[in-house]
Amino acid sequence: MASWNSFPLEITYQTLGWLAFVSWSISFYPQVILNFRRKSVVGLSLDFLLLNLTKHSSYLIYNTVLYFSPAAQQQYFEKYGHEQMIPVAANDVAFSIHAVVLTAITLFQVFIYERGTQTISKISIGIVSVVWLFAAVCVFVALPSHSWLWLISIFNFIQVSMTVIKYIPQAVMNFMRKSTEGFSIGNILLDFTGGVANYGQMATQSIDQNSWVNFYGNIGKTLLSLVSIFFDILFMVQHYILYRPKKTSGINGKATDKGNNDPLIDSSDDHQPQASNV
């Protein structure tokens, strides 16, 4: 297994990794807190939550196996070279565990808070069912030959696929409602920070090792950053430009519409008192 050539780059790598972990981990809390305060999940796509749970569960399996399993690591070195470094860090494992727990908590809020007419679509249920059935089949295929690297690569492929499609229901919901109300922008800002830091961490390792193997050796982590950054920018455009939230009153916190500022007293002729004839 390769070692670091530059101590400053190693420190930078660790710093960026834990920055990504902290940013991504904290990013789950604004939505949970928003749901708790509103006692409602209206505006939050339930399809997004279900797909997100599948995504993070798959990513957890990939990270924990490659980080802790000597057999999987040995197969990785045999495929990519013994001079390479394992592309999974401790912060990746910690993030995955935290992500699964917080996503499950957010999904639990769906069952206890007001959700209006929102339901989980049959399409999302079908996708998740097919994905886990496919994963189960792959487990049985890998068992006889102990093809652990191939197996966790399947889970990495699943998490990449879920990353690509999980944001779509929320983006479409925002477009249909012409609003991002109920969807925490704090989540997006922190997610964006984590994505940039995660990509920077991988670039730092590649610069130190003078090799870009870790980018395609852990294509899931690479695409995770790039796809997250893309959709985070889309959500920020929706929130701050396309569907800017309405201003709220300082008294009761209810939304006001700047385009409908009716006067306190209607001064139209139809409502003016008629002068009595003497």
TrEMBL record:
It comes from Linum tenue. It holds the Pfam family PQ-loop. One of its GO terms (cellular component) is lysosomal membrane. Signal peptide: none annotated. Residues 252-278 are annotated as: Disordered. SMART domains: CTNS. The keyword Lyase does not apply. This is Cystinosin homolog.
